[in-house]
Every structure is written in C-alpha cells, then in structure tokens.
Design brief:
Elements: E1 3-11, H1 15-22, E2 35-40, E3 45-53, E4 56-68, E5 72-77, E6 82-93, E7 96-106, H2 114-139, H3 157-164, E8 167-168, E9 175-176, E10 180-184, E11 187-191, H4 194-201, E12 217-219, E13 222-224, H5 227-232
Antiparallel strand pairs: 1-7, 2-3, 3-4, 4-5, 5-6, 6-7, 8-9, 10-11, 12-13
Length: 242
C-alpha cells in the first residue's frame, strides 16, 4: 500500500529560478540525500541510482508525466522502487516562492516496514527541500533550465478559470477549482489553501516576525506571538496565561 508524503518550503528565489533548477535532474545528487546519480535518458525518462543503506543500491527508471513551466512537474516510476509524485511552484513575492512536494511511495516486499519507511522517507524529503533551498539561495541563480512542456498544454490562468469555474489565489497565484473567499474588514480575499490565507491575513509578531495563529498577546499597541517575545521587546510585565 502506497503512503503519501506532503512537504513544502519557502525559497528566497523567483518562481522561474526555482522551477528551472528543478528541471536540472542530473544535479539532484547535489541536494538529495542518498541519490547517487540521475541520468536523463530523454525529455521524459530518468534513470535513478540511490543508496538505500547497508551498502545496498537501488536503480529505477521514472517517467515525467507532466511538466508545465513555472507551475508543476509530475512523475511516476516505470520499474523498480514504486513511487509517483508532483512538485509545484507557487509565487509568494517577486523574489520568493513556495515549493510543494507530494510523494507516494510503496515499500518493496516484506523486508520493508511501512511505518519505518514512511518515517525515513518523510525526514528525507524534508531534508532534501532544505538542501534545495540552501543550494539555490547560496548560488543566487539556477544551473540551467528546460522550458519545454510535457503532458497537457499550459493554459493561461484566465482561460483555466473560465473553462473550469476556478479562481486565482491572491497569495500564490495558483488557479484552483475549489478556491474559497475570506471577507475581512469589508474586503474579500480569494485563496486556494488555508496556508495561503494565513500567510496573507494572519498578523506577524512584532519581535520574531512569525505568523500569529493563536491568540497572541498585545502590548503598547503591538502584537506578539507570545509573552516571551513581548518581554524581549521591552514589555517586562507581560505574562502568558492559560
């Protein structure tokens, strides 16, 4: 039975830079743990070799099933380790984007415990995204890029919305069929996820800058995520209360 892993990370780089870097599959060993090599056989097929521990390696061929510039890359394995997934790219600001990765992984045979494998794979995916973030931010630019399209053609957001009854998220720019509207202070906002809604609407702590998702605390006209941050900003009398 396949297990689903979903992870995301914000990268200090434009969507185009992050997307173009992800199309450089043969660079994956530079930031993906355990990946020894990725050979691009043609525009659609990749040959992977990975270290799976205890001196063992595993090889498999994957097929890119969908590739839409600056939006998404989807793949599935054709042999060997069974997996499929999609990575999507979302605009946050001109020089910042969010990379979301969904991976379905099916343990091979009776030797792999589902729970153990899922835990290891989840930690590995998180680590890979962190290393990708450092890799692209340290470089400041992509190592290359392929702008071709695989699978369905990339519709314009306007055409997609008209054809599917979708709406565009005001945070990431994604056009989504199940978008929802939040009204606050007499103004309406459209989002494709709660994460985007919180990123846009939740207040930020005046000290540490994190988004305040709970009650927070207020002192001297400023909002803080907790009493600790309020005190660090000079409001010594503030205390958290249960």
């Amino acid at each position: 039975m396949a297990s689903l892993i979903e992870k995301g990370i914000e990268v200090e780089a434009p969507v185009r830079v992050a997307y173009d870097q992800w199309t450089q599959f043969e660079d994956f060993p530079r930031f993906m743990e355990g990946v020894l090599s990725v050979e691009q056989l043609d525009d659609r097929r990749l040959r992977w070799t990975a270290d799976v521990g205890a001196g063992n390696t595993r090889e498999w061929t994957a097929e890119i099933t969908e590739q839409l510039p600056d939006r998404r890359i989807a793949w599935r394995s054709l042999e060997g380790a069974r997996n499929r997934g999609v990575v999507t790219f979302h605009h946050v600001a001109p020089d910042r984007c969010r990379v979301m990765l969904q991976l379905e992984y099916e343990p091979e045979g009776l030797m792999e415990n589902v729970g153990d494998v899922l835990g290891v794979m989840s930690a590995r995916v998180s680590g890979d995204l962190e290393r990708f973030k450092r890799f692209i931010e340290d470089r400041g630019t992509e190592t290359g890029g392929w702008r071709g399209t695989i699978g369905r053609p990339a519709p314009s957001p306007e055409a997609h919305a008209a054809d599917r009854g979708a709406a565009r998220c005001m945070t990431c720019g994604n056009t989504y069929e199940d978008a929802f509207t939040v009204t606050l202070g007499g103004r309406s906002y459209v989002f494709d996820s709660f994460e985007c809604a919180l990123h846009r609407l939740a207040p930020s702590c005046a000290h540490c800058g994190c988004r305040i998702l709970g009650h927070g605390v207020s002192a001297d006209g400023a909002l803080f995520c907790c009493a600790h941050c309020a005190r660090r900003s000079g409001n010594d009398e503030v205390r958290d209360s249960a």
